[in-house]
Amino acid sequence: MKVTEIFELDQSTKLELPLFSMRVSAGLPTYGDDYVDRTLDLNDLVKHPDSTFLVKVEGDSMINAGIHEGDILIVDRALEAMNNSVVVASINGELTVKKLKIKGTDVFLMPENPKYEPIEIKPLTEFRIEGVVSFVIHKT
Length: 140
What we know:
Distance between the termini: 18 Å
Structural class: mainly beta
CATH topology of the domain at 2-8 and 48-137: Umud Fragment, subunit A
Number of strands: 10
Shape: globular
Largest sheet: 8 strands, antiparallel
């Protein structure tokens, strides 16, 4: 899965949307207009504004992690990438999103689609973790 666009955050404006206190049923419909709990500013999703960026993704290698083509990822450079973190990484100058897998001293970038093979990070690979994915904005 490739990163196709990178966006900076603009926190100079607020975008507050209603956040309902009730859950949305995936079965029978329920009515919730009376249950608006508060508004949620999308800026509230960002813990480290100066270290956060947005990327748009292309491809299907992370589909089983709920990341689809056209989705926008909120990526935080200030978060520590740990085993099983979903990360945006640079491999030989190309950005990709994968699950980080650490086994002893071995490092792999794991796809979440069985059509793709893991990427082993070898000693001579130009590799850098650009940030940890903190949220996925899914395009329907």
